[in-house]
Amino acid sequence: MSEAAGSVHRLDDLDAALVHCRACPRLVEWREEVARTRRAAFRDQQYWGRAVPGFGPADARLAIVGLAPAAHGANRTGRMFTGDRSGDVLFAALHELGLSSQAESNSAQDGMRLFGVRMTAPVHCAPPDNKPSTAERDTCSAWLTRELQLLRPDLRAIVVLGRFGWQALLPVLTDAGWLVPRPRPAFGHGVEYEIASAAGNGSIRLFGSYHVSQQNTFTGRLTPAMLKDVLGRAAGYAGLVVQTRSRLDGDGGGISRAVR
């Protein structure tokens, strides 16, 4: 699929090509099996059951990189982080910061918009047990490489959710034209690193966060405040307008400020 990814020059064309990818037999079999059998709570719904493209504008200044679509989340709805508990946490934080139009993301037809933010993943198909193989990650990397190349003119910051996404992203950054230092930056919640461009024309800042998985959010390893801190710092670095209010202030109690 590297040739298919590299041959497109517009982000919407990349997304359209990606959904037809069948390069990883195990992932194709699993995503389609889940779409056939369905979870009881969603038995009356038509599952997406294909590769899931990134979500967000082509001129995004901030990218959020996860792991892979959830079997009954994005694999069901066809949109990144949509339709599961992980997405509930992430979109709530983005909404509080003024970076999404809604606090809940339930379906690809719910009118959700992201402001200056693009969501994507190193693996675009739902994997069994949420564990893609190294070979599957590497096979899928050409899509993320091309996506970042197309985002590059405006991209200023990347938030990576989880160690798997971090380890998958670093070689992709090299392929996409950035100079990842050696030894490679270590993952950790709240870490940030400046990554220079190989062409010498600017840099991006890489931010780490624990993943918004139920395992992390239900146990308190990742709290809403911790997530908002990382997202807010990254958005500020990217020059986006963020909210300073809490949801407890109500819809009308927010104060917006532009930070860099």
From TrEMBL:
**Which InterPro entries does UniProt cross-reference here?**
UDG_Type-4/5, UdgB-like, Uracil-DNA_glycosylase-like, Uracil-DNA_glycosylase-like_sf
Uracil-DNA glycosylase-like domain: residues covered? 53-231
Key word Iron present: yes
Residue ranges of the TM segments: none
* UniProt keyword annotations, A-Z: 4Fe-4S, DNA damage, DNA repair, Hydrolase, Iron, Iron-sulfur, Metal-binding
Q: Which family does it belong to?
A: Belongs to the uracil-DNA glycosylase (UDG) superfamily. Type 5 (UDGb) family.
Name of the protein? Type-5 uracil-DNA glycosylase
Organism per entry: Jatrophihabitans telluris
